[in-house]
Specification:
single chain; five-stranded mixed β-sheet; Hypothetical Protein Mth938, Chain: A
Length: 123
Amino acid sequence: MKETRSPRITSISWGHMEVDGLGAGKDFKLYPGGGREWNCNETNTRHLPGIQPADVQELVENGSKVVVLSRGMQLQLQTCPETLQLLKEKGISVHVEETKSAAKLYNTLAESEMVGGLFHSTC
């Protein structure tokens, strides 16, 4: 049976994150049962207009019922309205927070929820 618990963020600081079972990296895409480093160049995501629907699709496909989106350490990363609308249409709760707050909330939710998240560890 596939593990459905979302991996826990064990450490986060400017430009560096550590995630149980995934190791260290800069930015992460996490979801029930796993995750990977998040390369925003895959979807050409920039601070503006921000996190795009394509960025959260993997979270949805991997069973996330709640999604936490980080805004960066200095709140520079935005989220496209279309992304929020897509999650709403799919009945997925979403939280948008500063990165350290997002990581703390994500870890709390991971104890009991099918949570996914996108984490940007710099600006």
